[in-house]
Predict the structure.
Amino acid sequence: MGRYFGVWLVISVFISLTAFSQQGAEYYLTGNFKEIFGTVVTDKGEQRGEFFGTIGFRVVPGEKGLALYLVEFNLVSKGVPTEKGDSGLLSLRLFDLFEKPLSYDPRSGRASAEFQMVLHYELIDRVKGFRRAEGKGELDLFPSFTEEMKGKASIRFPEALQVAETGGTTADLDLTLELSTAVLGSIRKISLVGRVRVDWTRLRQPAQVLKIQPVFIGTGPTDPNRTGVAFNTLMTRASELWSRCGTVRCLKFEVNNPIYLNKPAYKVLESETEAASLRAEVSVADAVEIFVVERMTFACSWGGGACFSAGTASAKIVTCDQQLNVPAPCPCPSFCPATCPPCPPCQTGAVNSYHLAHELGHALNLDHPGQPYGLAAVTVGSNMEPSGFCCDNPNVQSAKNCRNASNPLLYWGTALCFGRPDIMD
């Protein structure tokens, strides 16, 4: 928990040290934090901001002591006032993972780093819209325009920091971020200063978890005409496919109880504008929302569903129950992965079992192969291939997809992961 005293911030962070390599020579130092208060400078002046997020270090013991690598740093805020209106949900994630160790002095316990972070806030989407690029297969990806901030961070651990199985201590954190690449330029600087409590726990492997918020149309779970009848099956397939990252990286989904919208007009979406109105109905700050309607009259162009604000905390997915019973006549897409049934024709009863796994890949900042949306690179022939409403996304996971997945909403959890990617690239 955090409390604000003048310019000082006290942050409670749960941090776990996790064994990683078989040799026991590398460790992860990971932490989740909530209710961090700091200063956000916008075009409207200095504002008070409240953040939650995660931080993670790879720790390598050596003859000269510990080497620390910053591998994860996410910040999310519910927003601040700007000249163009409320920023809406604001998020930052590391632009690149570190390959060089931080500057760390074991005698003083001080570690420091300079880095870049990707900045997104919902006001950018409202003003600029989404980026689109024509490509093969489904046009299901609506990435946001983003900005970049340069960051400097200092964290001071106790002198002569040692790996421990249990216990905890405190450390001092000082973070400054300044805008370096602008789209709107409404948010210009972010500063956090405070004292951090850290707790050590040794686990088998660090897991990263993404919360999912399903949104169905209906009065509640007993409504016989509610939407969402395909969700559990699609989510099960998505969880299974992403669990295959286990030998490379442990990624898990945590599904919240559904939210029900008693607005029957949304059961059948007639246009992308209507889909945008639906997305605006529910916003959960710490989860990726998945809106499930009965059907969409324009579903063929989207491949049955789409992801908006990919790779940011504002990521939302719109899909439909028809994934498990695709109707004719949906035209055969111009591009089909080899795993698709023969095309044409597209017959009633075809299924898109791995559609949601694909859309969640977009929420995790993954692109289509070879398409210049500006998201992370993926593997040809994997689940991230664009397919179509009558042509299921491949049931294939890759190590590259697993490594490149990112979203500011990912938090550290506990889980055992043993799955192996189908493609070890």
